[in-house]
Design brief:
- The complex is a heterodimer.
- Chain A is mainly alpha-helical.
- Chain A has 12 helices and 4 strands.
- In chain B, helix 2 runs parallel beside helix 9, helix 3 runs antiparallel to helix 6 and helix 13 packs across helix 14.
- Chain B contains 18 helices and 2 strands.
- The chains are: A mainly alpha, B mainly alpha.
Chain lengths: ~300, ~375
């Protein structure tokens, strides 16, 4: 592999990895607190992409405001899902919540099919993000700089909320011991709603950027990225935000590098993540950063 | 010395119950014979789907409801059963027609077995795959097991899309001989019921339930929980493969895309709706959900009433079904039947009391009729 291609692949890996990381954070935060896989998370990501599509195309709201509106809309959806489908099952066996999550996931996908129709739609792509920068033989989209930068800002913001504010303290405390936290007078339901809101906002941000990278949106676009991001969260050590970021970047790199080096494997691309998952589960079930249990949020 | 194991024969009314079982099996086949002469193609297809879905639901219920392993890889086992069985029943001439882009892997081109053997081989292949999967993942518990099995199912799907010399790739297999008629499907359903009920009644079943209810306690009693769970997983995998094999012959066309997560979800819905840990529930759930799912298809087709046309709404069917699943899990977690089972003793007790105290039952009946009447009256404008 020559140097030009290497640089191009590096940026590709960084972009895809950042997107996986953003989605993975939502999985890891919910798992850290409620100990179940929020299957609907990948579909919140899809809804985020649709929200911006409709706000930009059917109103005069400028693009940046539309992105903000889509993110707020998606976090409202995340909170609503928790209120309707998960809160009634807090005391039930965790498997019940998991089945309910699968139900929500299929509901959102098929509701998307009913409302948006199965027709793939062109994504919203501001020109300054997708006009490639050409430098010698290297061809890079500005997106490849913007996505990791936005991801870094969002993750730092999230880490600030989790580690430096009182609601963040409540989240970390619930992850450690939910009953004691309740006794301390913390509103459990409100903190969990905040967790869902934050996770869904990040997923929507990822959905908006994903739609620029792969410019077609359809109701099932969230399924595979959702699974892969969950795997990234497990690989990084579920419950740890830093782990989710690391896992996402690792998964993005593995996918891009493997396909770049062995093009004959490209048909198996979607299986890499699952193979990685099984290898990690076998040799290090707590993930790369899963040892420090006190970091669970 | 071995302790005297109370054999099922020593139960009260054992002979009566056995005869009743045999009698109802005979009635079932009489019903199939009648159906073969009186039902149209669509109704027969529905009847067949009920049987195959019941087999699939029973196998998932055995893994999840009785052994407590959350498995989301059912579609993968089905795919293996369906492909292996299809490869065994397609004629060499058909194979030559199907594998156009890439030639078929040579030893498979001439290989053929009778249908019953093919289905069995499909189940066996699925069981072997579950063994291979179980060896690494059985140590995992709860959701991790679910996500790992889901991962394996996805890997199987990707493999099948790429291994064109064996599976014909993404195009799939067409023109699979439609051997799976109601006779075969219901015979396999009865066989599944027999094996699963016998296993559950045996010591093996008790061990599985003890592991499900409290794994640590079971291990303290000296039970090798991993070995038992692996065995249960393979039994479930076998019947999932059988179900897949029958399904393949029933729909005559299979492709890797068909065995996606949605398929596993449908089976899970049947198991949860019928009642986790109830064999009766799985069969009843299969009948109810299969018929409802087919019936709801109407919504997705355009309807023409002469004066008004309602366009079909694609996706609405699954919207309704995901809502149903969530309502069940939130408001009636135990499903239709919970973990209750049908038993002949309860059946005869009911009719016995009907004979002794007809007035009580007559009262129930009258009250029920009055309720129906009130509902009907209320329903009218």
């Amino acid at each position: 592999m020559n140097q030009d291609l290497f640089i191009q692949n590096l940026f590709n890996a960084l972009t895809v990895g950042s997107l996986y990381a953003l989605i993975a954070i939502g999985y890891t935060m919910v798992y850290g607190i409620l100990r179940f896989i929020n299957f609907a998370h990948g579909d919140v990501f899809m809804v985020g992409a649709y929200f911006i599509f409709f706000t930009v195309n059917f109103s005069i709201i400028p693009w940046p405001l539309a992105a903000l509106a889509a993110i707020i809309g998606a976090s409202a959806l995340g909170i609503l899902v928790d209120r309707v489908a998960y809160r009634p099952l807090r005391e039930a066996p965790r498997i019940s919540a998991l089945i309910s999550a699968i139900g929500v996931s299929f509901l959102l996908e098929n509701l998307g099919l009913v409302i948006f129709t199965g027709l793939p739609r062109p994504a919203v792509q501001p020109a300054w993000l997708v006009d490639p920068i050409i430098y010698g033989n290297i061809r890079i989209l500005p997106l490849s700089f913007v996505v990791p930068a936005v991801t870094a800002v969002l993750v730092l913001g999230l880490l600030f909320i989790v580690y430096r504010t009182r609601p963040g303290l409540a989240m970390r405390s619930i992850a450690r011991d939910i009953e004691t936290t309740r006794l301390m007078g913390v509103s459990i339901d409100r903190t969990i709603a905040l967790t869902f809101g934050l996770g869904s906002a990040l997923a929507a941000a990822a959905g908006i950027m994903w739609a620029m990278r792969y410019p077609q949106i359809h109701p099932f676009m969230g399924v595979l990225p959702g699974f892969k991001a969950f795997i990234a969260a497990v690989v990084g050590g579920i419950g740890s935000i830093q782990g989710a970021v690391l896992g996402g970047l690792l998964l993005g790199t593995v996918e891009i590098v493997a396909v770049a080096n062995w093009p004959e494997l490209s048909g198996y691309r979607d299986a890499f993540a699952f193979v990685l998952l099984i290898v990690i589960l076998l040799f290090r079930p707590t993930g790369l950063m899963g040892e420090k249990m006190e970091d669970k949020i | 010395m071995k302790a005297a194991n109370p054999s099922p024969i020593s139960e009260p009314h054992a002979l009566r119950n056995r005869l009743s079982t045999l009698g109802s099996a005979a009635l079932l086949f009489l019903g199939i014979w009648w159906a073969g002469h009186n039902l149209d193609g669509y109704q027969t297809r529905l009847l067949n789907l009920v049987a195959v879905n019941a087999i699939l639901a029973l196998s998932l219920n055995f893994i999840y409801g009785f052994s407590g392993m959350f498995s989301l890889g059912h579609a993968g086992f089905m795919a293996i059963g369906a492909y292996v069985s299809a490869l065994c029943i397609l004629t060499p001439a058909q194979k030559e027609m199907i594998w156009l882009l890439e030639p078929i892997y040579e030893p498979l081109a001439e290989f053929m077995t009778p249908f019953v053997v093919s289905v069995f081989l499909g189940g066996l292949a699925a069981a072997l795959t579950s063994l291979v999967i179980a060896l690494p993942v059985m140590r995992l518990g709860g959701d991790y097991l679910g996500i790992a099995t889901l991962g394996f199912a996805e890997i199987i799907r990707v493999l099948f899309t790429n291994l064109a010399p064996i599976t014909n790739g993404a195009i799939g297999l067409r023109g699979i001989p439609p051997y799976a008629d109601a006779w075969w499907n219901y015979a396999w359903l009865l066989a599944t019921l027999f094996v699963i009920l016998s296993l559950l009644k045996s010591n093996f079943g008790n061990v599985l339930k003890s592991i499900r209810d409290d794994e640590i306690a079971a291990r303290t009693m000296g039970i090798d929980t991993t070995a038992y769970r692996t065995m249960a997983f393979c039994v479930g995998g076998f019947f999932a493969g059988v179900g897949g094999a029958l399904m393949g012959s029933l729909v005559t066309t299979i492709e890797p895309k068909m065995f996606n997560f949605q398929y596993t979800f449908n089976i899970l819905l049947i198991v949860v709706a019928g009642g986790l840990g109830s064999v009766t529930g799985s069969v009843v759930g299969a009948a109810v959900i299969t018929i409802l799912l087919e019936w709801l298809r109407i919504i997705e087709y355009p309807m023409d009433f002469g004066f008004i046309r309602i366009p079909g709404i694609p996706g609405m069917r699954m919207v309704i079904f995901s809502v149903v699943l969530m309502l069940i899990i939130i408001f009636r977690r135990e499903g239709l039947l919970g973990n209750r089972e049908f038993s002949w003793n309860a059946f005869y007790d009911f009719f016995g009391s009907l004979k002794k105290r007809p007035d009580v039952h007559l009262g129930h009946l009258l009250r029920f009729l009055r309720l129906v009447k009130k509902l009907l009256a209320g329903g009218q404008p």
